[in-house]
Amino acid sequence: MGHYLNTENFPCATVEEKQALAGAVETIIANDFKGEMLPMLAGYRKILEDNRRREEWDGIHEKLMTLFKCGKSTLLNGPMIGVPISIRDSDYFKETAKKYDHSRSMRSHIEWMATLWNAAYASTGLWMGKTFEPVSREVFAAKCDNNPVMMERYDPTVTRIGRNFFREPHQPNFLQSFGLPVLTQFWELKDRPLDPSARGFDSPLLSINLDKEKAIPYVKTGGIFLALPGNSVVEEMNGKAVYQLNYRWPELHPAFPMTRLVNELVQIDEGVYLGQLVMATHHYSLGTLRLPLFGESPREWELGEAYAGNTQIDYGYQNNGFFLMIDTSRARQVFADEAFPNLRPRPGEIGWKELGYDKSSSIKLVVSTSEGAD
What we know:
Blueprint: H1 15-31, H2 37-48, H3 57-70, E1 78-87, H4 94-98, H5 112-120, E2 127-134, H6 137-143, H7 148-153, E3 160-166, H8 179-186, E4 190-191, H9 207-213, E5 220-231, E6 241-246, E7 261-269, E8 272-279, E9 285-291, E10 299-304, E11 318-327, H10 331-334
């Protein structure tokens, strides 16, 4: 754990801030860490997905922020298992709250997004991860509209184009049954590629990565992003080095709310990466409206402000929660009973046989419940 977590990974403004950060990490290790990272994070997630434990949420978010600050920026490559940890409301009144010595406004403390997510999807495993694939300079340029700052940062050894993995919830209730069909339509998801000859992707489908994907049960893929090393766009991160995923470029065809979305990742353990969800609160688009006009080609109207990557604009970026990316080599540990068993592959899904669950008589099927949805 200590190999990846280090206060030197965060640009503290003062000695006192660095000492406080070191003390916070030591407290986590002493009180929460029992020799394995994944069970500790699973314990945090259990609290954050339980609407009856709202009074504990701020404390857990502070611990996750401590881990994120001390995490190490590094390249992610190929498919990764994804674990949603928390989602938070955007705080549009943060600056006003600061004047009264509060970190968040009273409105943001309602956490209605987290409450609804917990009630509907927290335990379903709807989102199952991402993949990070090589991208050519030509494709990269087309996706970021030849933005000069981005083109200067392009490096084929660390720059990636990525997409997300989505899964059918097990025995979905009425609300959950709409999840994947709605995402498929509005985010233009594609069927899972099963071999390198599959069409419609912006990068080569490498056999080595498709083999690794067999540890992840998913059926649809999409939600495209560009990824490369950078500095955090969140003001409170003081320019911390992160591996950054940007969904906002118009040529990626993001649907709201991905028009606001940036992800930032750091490594906190062997094969374990902690990500923060970051949303813009200013200067963003609600999406593109396309309407046909009397038999002509559809006209397009941008609903809001299209992202242009202008470094002079204050987008009001804020932390909106946390998630994990975990190397597929640790799949059995991820799906273990003491970690995230609700994400475990089910009979008939890719991953069930590939990970040997069909030969394990002690493995039981974990069914999502509505615990914590009150």
